[in-house]
Each structure stands twice: as C-alpha cells, then as structure tokens.
Amino acid sequence: MASLRSWLRATTAVLTTSAALAAPASHLKRASITQVSQSQADTFTPTAHYASASYCTPDSTLAWNCANCGKNPSFQPIASGGDGVMVQYWFVGYDPSLESVVVAVQGTNPSAIIPLLTDGDIALINLDSDLFPGLDSSIQAHKGFADAHSRSADDILAAVQQAFDKYSTSKVLLTGHSLGAAITLLHSVYIPVQIPDAKVTYVGYGLPRVGNQAFADYVDAHDSITSVTHINNMEDPIPILPGRLLGFDHPAGEIHIQDSGEWLACPGQDNTSSQCTVGDVKNLLDGNLSNHSGPYNGVTMKC
Ligand SMILES: *[C@@H]1O[C@H](CO)[C@@H](O)[C@H](O)[C@H]1NC(C)=O
Ligand SMILES: *[C@@H]1O[C@H](CO)[C@@H](O)[C@H](O)[C@H]1NC(C)=O
Ligand SMILES: *[C@@H]1O[C@H](CO)[C@@H](O)[C@H](O)[C@H]1NC(C)=O
C-alpha cells in the first residue's frame, strides 16, 4: 500500500484547493440532480457482478471460483487474459439478457502492488497513435492508465470483434472498478476508433480521473459512446484523483451514492454540488478509502 499512499500524498496539496474552482462556463447546463430509483439502480447489478468478477483469476473455462462469479448465469465467455500483476485480468463474452458483448477489466487491490505503482504515474500524455489513430492532439490521458490499457488492448479488441461476429451485434458493455474502470473508459474510446460500428455502454465503479478536458469532452460527445455512467460510493476519495488542477477532468455521467445509501445522478462534468463526489469529498481527509470497494447496491468489488 506504500505506493498508493505516496500517490495520495503527491496529489493532496492540489486536491485541497481544486474543489473551490468553479466549473468551466461551457459545462454549465440547466439540469438538476435527480434521484435514481431502486429499480433503476437494480439495472446496474449485473454490471456490478461483471466488474467484481474481473478480480478473479480466470481459468481456462472462465468458470471462476469466487463469490461474485456465476451471478450472470447466461454469460457466454469468449476469451480472457491478464496475469493480475503486470496485466490486469480481463474477460470478454456475451450476455444474452443484456443483448450485448461484455468486457470487464480488473481493478486494484492490496495484493496487486504493481498496478498501484502504475496508478502513481500521473503525467498526461497523448494516446498512442497506432492504437488511437486520428484522435485530436489536444486529447490526453494519464500515462499509467494508457500504459495499462495498451498491455491488453489488442487481445481485448480481437475478442470483441470475435464476439460481434459470433453474436451478430455491435453493442458492447464495458465495465470495471478502480484501475479497471479507468482502463475500460480508455477502451470506450479505443474500441469505436478501431471498430467504427461499435456502440459502447460504459459503467465504471470508483473511477479515477482518466484524461484531460478534451478527453472528457470527447467521451461525452462521441456518437459511438452511447452511455457513460460512473458510480461513486459515499466518501470514496479515488474519484477525486488525480486533481483537476493537474489538468484532469471526468466525463459527465456520475451517480453518487449518498451516505444514506440513496443514489443520485449528478449532471455535468465534475459537479461541485455537495451531493456529488467533488463537492462532498473536497480533499483526501474527507474521504474514506474503505468506501472504494462498495457496496454498490449490495455488490462489493472483490473476488
Ligand atoms: C450540478 O448540478 C446542479 C444541480 O444541482 C446544476 O444546476 C449544475 O449545472 C451542475 N453542474 C454542472 C457542472 O453541470
Ligand atoms: C471509514 O470507514 C470505516 C469502515 O466502515 C469506519 O470504521 C471509519 O469510521 C470511517 N472513517 C471515517 C473518517 O469516517
Ligand atoms: C463508508 O464511509 C462511511 C463514512 O463516510 C462509513 O460510515 C461507512 O461505514 C463506510 N462504509 C463501508 C462499507 O466501509
């Protein structure tokens, strides 16, 4: 955990002041914070189980042996990979009840120290032009997340293409928690760049900031990315990292789980209302890392 702590320490000074910044005028929209009903929250439960199952070591049949595996019994595996150390575990398959291909990528946990070191690499860089041809040069992302994405990008892309062909669909649900949420947000840009027909639904849990304003704007505006939701639990500090003063921004689509357990949808990017994460968790001292793994409507992110 030492690397996580040093990462948190490195960003503290910035974070304490960043919450005081007003949102850029271009992102002020007339919209209100709305309650997410229990039945709406329940629609995310299969996704939470996928994100959670990504922590488990996949075996050759993808029959994972863990508490949150097997919770989507109709899932049809296509491929899996990663080693849980240098390369986050990932799996790709098809969910007939969601009528979508599913991609889930593993996040960070205390036993995966090297991925945490990856998280510490907070420079903003341009995305690799071989993986992301044609992206505007203003678009930048966290170097550590971009590197982590690149290690399995080709394998995941091939599995998604295979699944699209096999199941005659172009819908793909991308999900993950923590580092896995960051990697799958990059896949939400990468997959449609490589497969222009792809229609992406993204659901991230405890998502840190992945890129700069131009990156967030691209995610929000791109037609192939049909839906973006990032769900933050209570006082989890990870979503306020890296800080906005370092040049990082979230796309729109936050759902913030209140301390009461109520789910609220927060409009816009980095909404500073006290009901949303940026306004509620103003700095690391306001945060509680024990909230990072959930529960998200009853699902805890672990194998
Ligand atoms: C945050 O939410 C409020 C509603 O409470 C809304 O008026 C405001 O425009 C939102 N901020 C952003 C940046 O979208
Ligand atoms: C953080 O969460 C833990 C576990 O739920 C709790 O014991 C602790 O009091 C919380 N800390 C703060 C500062 O709220
Ligand atoms: C989340 O943090 C709150 C403090 O904000 C604490 O009371 C609660 O127990 C934590 N929940 C979990 C599951 O750790």
Any overview of this molecule?
It is globular, with a radius of gyration of 18 Å. Mean pLDDT is 85; it is low at 1-28 and 110-118. Helix 4 (113-119) crosses helix 5 and helix 5 crosses helix 6. Helix content is 30%, strand content 19%. It has helices spanning 2-18, 38-42, 45-53, 113-119, 143-167, 179-194, 213-221, 277-280; strands spanning 34-36, 76-81, 90-95, 100-105, 124-126, 140-142, 171-177, 199-205, 225-233, 254-257, 263-266. The protein starts with a helix and ends in a 23-residue tail after the last helix. It has 303 residues and is α/β, with parallel strands linked by helices. The chain has a single domain (2-27, 35-291), classed as 3-Layer(aba) Sandwich (Rossmann fold). It binds 2-acetamido-2-deoxy-beta-D-glucopyranose (NAG) (3 copies).
